[in-house]
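During the first year of the project, the team set up a workflow for recording each protein of interest as an amino acid sequence followed immediately by a discrete structure-token representation. This format lets reviewers and collaborators read both layers of information side by side without switching files. As required by the reporting guidelines, we include two representative entries from the current panel. The first entry is reproduced here exactly as it appears in our internal archive.
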Amino acid sequence: MASVNDSPAGDLNGKVGGLVYYKVGGKTYVRQAPSKQTKAQKKKTPPLKLLYQSKMTLTQRHLKSLKSPIAFGFQNLAVGARRPFHACVSYTLNNSFIADGPKFAIDPSLIKVSRGPLLPPLNAKAEKVDNGFYITWQSNAHFSNAKPWDKAFIVLHYPDQMFSEYITFGNDRSSESQFVQLWESMLKKKCHVNLAFSQDQSNNGNILLSDSVYLGWL
């Protein structure tokens, strides 16, 4: 993959000959266009490649409705043309599958919606109450790089509805709890609950994030 800083052809975007031009973060990148395969070539695809393709399809489908929270939770892993979603897909492919012989599936408890070096939540739990979720954790502020003012990052994922909702800057780490009110239409639906923390790095304008912790299918 190469980047294009200046082009005499102007602002390139899309397929040109055997190359594909595309923009990420205002910068233009170029890669080789994939070649088309015949039916005979597809039949000769190695089993390991077919397995990878199947896992990739399943991963993309599962994470599609998590794109917005992933953009926040994986923001520190965006480098060049590699976006937060790409980083999450890579992590999921390598860490979030379980297998039973030739059968495989994603284990939602192994998925991360946030990754980073900030100290993660300690002893976190989620309980479904009449009109939402009550999430608790034990404050571990002042340990390692954690601070009392770190903010809760909460993600609710409804894969059956292809929907997610999230809170980017929730209560402080030191508060040890947060109530998340649900829309009435979602009260009877189950979702995967995840919690992480973020820390504003006011000295450089960046946001430091922790790995997310899975709190259950509730």
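The second entry, processed by the same pipeline in the following quarter, appears below.
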Amino acid sequence: MACALGSLIAQPAWAEGGSRLDKIRQTGKIDIGFPDASPPFAFLDGNAKPVGYTLEICEHVARKLKDDLGLKALEVRYTAVMSATRIPLIGNGTIDLECGTATNLPERHKLVSFAPTTFVTQVVLVARKDSAVDVNDLSSFKGKSISAQAGGQTQRVVVRESAQDKLDIQVVPAKDTAEAFLLLETGRVAGSANDDALAHATVAGAKQPKDFKIGTKGLEFAPYGILEPKDDPAFKAAVDKAVVELIRDGTVAGLYRKYFEQPIPPKGINLELPMSDVLKRALANPTDSGDEAAYR
């Protein structure tokens, strides 16, 4: 009985429904999930080091949590995730934050929470220039195939629009952005659906960038936010506070310039994408809302 009682007392607080803050305080570690092939948001540089716009925001958040918790040091551990695995890994405690390209959708709030929005994009189509399809008109892909990340918003949007307009489009799932584009590049699909910044980054890094065309008319609006565990108000409050501070002090704007307007590793590609007006408004009035109206 004494051994059993001791075992119960020794159980960490977060195992009994406590906050992730308890875990971080007691272990001195924070686990960050990231997609390793989604430049400029999260990817591996030439030395296989995790880098990227969203990832670096999370690293700044980790430093602020370290200071808030009074820790002398905080080890940041990285776990590569995919669209289909990021939410389950947040839910089961494998990762504490997911720092990549998660779209803040109202239905996802049933499973996870989101930090204040740090990027706003739109879903666009990509195709080869020598093809007859119109990347600004989904109906031109009727009866054809389009690749998209499995479990991501892009897959959901194309499936929904195809069913709604009876386009009979076959959506070919890919594990990540790189694989979705490879399917297009090798001629196995007629097009690829992706968020515009990821589409520009992928095409810019292709062997023959001039062979591809990117749509300018979006299929759907998409705010990005760092994924947080659901039903952990103390942890969410601490992370949200850190993100808002990073927005207010100009750190997020500086990271935007670093990853969207300057050459990035490993190939030195410059996306040359100035900050959009909708993102400027989102940063001026931080929100964790998944409602499109919040960004107008």
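For the second entry, the following points were noted during internal review. DSSP finds ten helices and 14 strands in the chain. The domain at 121-222 is CATH 3.40.190.10 (D-Maltodextrin-Binding Protein; domain 2). Both points are flagged for discussion at the upcoming steering committee meeting.
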